[in-house]
Every structure is written in C-alpha cells, then in structure tokens.
Amino acid sequence: MSRRLFRASLLLLALVPLLAAPADARPGGGRSMGSRGSRTYSPPPMTQTAPYQARPMERSYAPSSPAPGYSNPMQRPMGQPYGFAQRRPFMTGFVGGLLGAGLFGMLSGHGFLGGVGGFVSFIGLLFQIALIGFIIVMVLRWLGNRRSAAQGGPAFSNGAGAPAVTLSNADYQNFQQLLLDIQAAWSAQNMRALSSMATPEMVSYFNEQLADYASRGARNIVSDVQFMRGDLSEAWREGNLTYATVAMQYSLYDVTTDQLGNVIDGSRTERQVVTELWTFVRADGRGNWVLSAIQQVG
To answer: Quick check: 186 pLDDT over 70?
Structure first.
C-alpha cells in the first residue's frame, strides 16, 4: 500500500506543472505586453470592438513613465461618451473660474471683476471678453477640424503640425492576415516565421512562452482561428516609424496538450472568443507591418 501511495504521489507531482498551464495559452498568454513607442503607457482610445479601457502593459522594453490615462479605473461603455467638461477639463475649469469670479463680483455689487474699480475694471472686462472669445473660436475650429476628418476618411494625426496617417484597405487586410499567420506560426512553434512578423521584443516573449511549455512537456495549439471584426483605435507617426493600434475580435480553439497529445487544458470542441488590441509598426517607405504589442481589454 505504501509503495502504491508513493508512486501515486510521484505521478501527481509530475502532472502538477502540466495542470498549472494557463487557461489563456494563446500567443501573449492573455497578458498585455510589448511597446507602442511613446504611447506604450498611455491607454489606446476605446472603439466599438473594444468598448472598455485596455489593461496597462505588464511587460515592455520601453522605459516606464507616468500614465495619467490609467489613473482612473472606471470603465465607460462606448454608448456613453464623455461630456465636454470631461474631455476638456482645463478649458472648462479656466473659463468657469473667470465667469464664476466675474458673476460673483456683479452679484455682490463689486462689478464684474469683484471690487476693482474705474479704468482698471474696464480693461479687465475687455481682457476677459477677448479671452473668452478666443477660447470659443478655438473650440469651434477644433469641432470643424473634427467634422472634416470624419467626412474625409480615417485620417489621424500626432498633434499640431504632425503629418496625418491614413490607412488603406490593404493595411487592414495585412493586420487581419498577420493575426492569422502569427497564430499559425505559434502553434507550429515556428520561431523563424514569428521573427518575420513581430518585433524582436515580441519574439522574445513568444520564445519564452514556448520554452516554458517545452520545459513542462506541454504544447499549446490554437486552431481554426476566425477573424470576426475589428476597427482602428489610433494611428500615428514617430520619426520614420508608423504605428497603428487595432482592436480585433476573433474566435479559436485553444488547447494545451501533453507529449502524448492528451488535452490538459482548454477544449477542442468549445470555441473561445477573444478581443484584444494589437499594435503594428512599420518603417516608412520600406518594410512590412509587424506586431509590436498585444493588450487585453477590460
């Protein structure tokens, strides 16, 4: 009896590493990793496909920096857009402060500037009117530019004076094909193919994941990957590099097997639906799009 218990214990200990395989075993392992240039630690804009804020990067070669966009964990569905005050807090607070101070002065009987009399009060009033008028003009111009961009196609810019980034249908087809090809190369453990479709950073993460499976006598296989839908979160240019972050939803079979092909995690009959943000990068004028980051949603 003691020998049987001893053998059973050894068998259980041998199976523990296999049973510990993560449920999200696809490329990236269900984590946020990679680099998005200067925007690595800033949350990508939400989209219809990914209507909740992306999770911050858990692994990245990019130098860490404060990420004010991630300071508020509240998630907002796409159907409930932010109000003007939330989208332009500085402008709202500044104008509100001017109007509040002026109106309080008038109501308390001290004039629009709250007690400053005579000529100085008049100059202050003109200054406030001119400043408010300038702000109104800037807001109207911003709204006009936004409307023009919406009518003219998917053009995105990286701030004032930066060249616009316009993606073609061929670019979106490349993103979709890269999603499928990377999954296939992952299942085949083809590091050479992965190296041609991802940045060295992402390839190092993939290689680390696959090596971890091999050390435990396991293998992850994703099959019948079907792209469902996707949309652009943002596209921008940094130097001679162009970045594009795309929300993509797809389904697949995700199983982890032992050396004999027995399933130890996942299912060959139940499809998983995955929504992720994939960031691609390419050098202007040369090269193809390659994967530079994967982020989880929510």
So the answer is: yes
User: What's the predicted TM-score (pTM) here?
Assistant: 0.63
pLDDT of residue 244: 97
Q: If DSSP states are collapsed to H, E and C, what string results for the chain?
A: CHHHHHHHHHHHHHHHHHHCCCCCCCCCCCCCEECCHHHCCCCCCCCCCCCCCECCCCECCCCCCCCHHHCCCCCCCCCCCCCHHHHCHHHHHHHHHHHHHHHHHHHCCCCCCCCCCHHHHHHHHHHHHHHHHHHHHHHHHHHHHHHHHHHHCCEECCCCCCCCEECCHHHHHHHHHHHHHHHHHHHCCCHHHHHHHECHHHHHHHHHHHHHHHHCCEEEEEEEEEEEEEEEEEEEEECCEEEEEEEEEEEEEEEEEECCCCEEEECCCCCEEEEEEEEEEEECCCCCCEEEEEEEEC
Chain-centroid distance of CA 108 in Å reads 50
Strand partners, 165: 156
Nearest to 156 by CA among 39, 33, 275, 57: 39
- Window from 3-7, 71-75, 112-116, 174-178 with minimum mean pLDDT: 71-75
Backbone phi, psi, residue 62, to 5° = -70, 140
- pLDDT tens string 233-257: 999 999 999 999 999 999 999 999 9
What is the 3 state secondary structure string of 73-96? CCCCCCCCCCCHHHHCHHHHHHHH
Closest CA to 67 of 89, 36, 90: 36
The architecture (CATH level 2) of 158-298 comes to Roll (3.10)
Mean predicted confidence (pLDDT) in 76-91: 42
* pLDDT tens profile 91-115: 444 444 444 444 444 444 544 444 4
